[in-house]
Specification:
This protein is an alpha+beta fold. It contains 4 helices and 6 strands; from the N terminus they run H-E-H-H-E-E-E-E-H-E. It has a 6-stranded antiparallel β-sheet with strand order 2-3-4-5-1-6, covered by helices on one side. The two termini are about 20 Å apart.
């Protein structure tokens, strides 16, 4: 993986966007508003972001789309997530105008929710 801070600065990037597609997490955590809210607060600490307000965690959907969605504003943009009740999958986006380490974010997410597998994509917004 690229040293994102150096690449961020080299490009003069406006933002860093990390897209995590995570598979088969711990259903108890994936289906808990409290656990998802704590996750958002802890992720902010791990990637050195300052939350702006409390996380918003709402359960909605239908059939196999039922699950929680997360929005955590941060001073430099937004962390969002969508968690699927049926299979424990999680889709997490971190966008910030401040550089951070996407690999650290990925590992924290994987460990917190005990995801079995996942992918990471990193984009520099210019």
């Amino acid at each position: 993986m690229v040293d994102t801070t150096n690449e961020f600065n080299r490009r003069g990037a406006w933002g860093l966007h990390c897209v995590l597609d995570m598979k088969r997490g711990n259903i108890e955590k994936i289906t808990s508003a409290e656990a998802i809210g704590i996750f958002a607060q802890e992720l902010c600490k791990v990637i050195d972001m300052k939350p702006f307000g409390e996380p918003i965690v709402i359960h909605f959907g239908s059939d196999n789309l039922m699950g929680f969605s997360l929005a955590q504003l941060i001073e430099t943009s937004l962390i969002s997530g969508h968690f699927v009740d049926q299979n424990g999958d999680g889709y997490i986006d971190i966008f910030s105008c401040k550089a951070y380490d996407p690999e650290v974010a990925y590992e924290f997410c994987k460990q917190y929710f005990k995801f079995e597998d996942g992918t990471i994509r990193v984009m520099f917004r210019e």
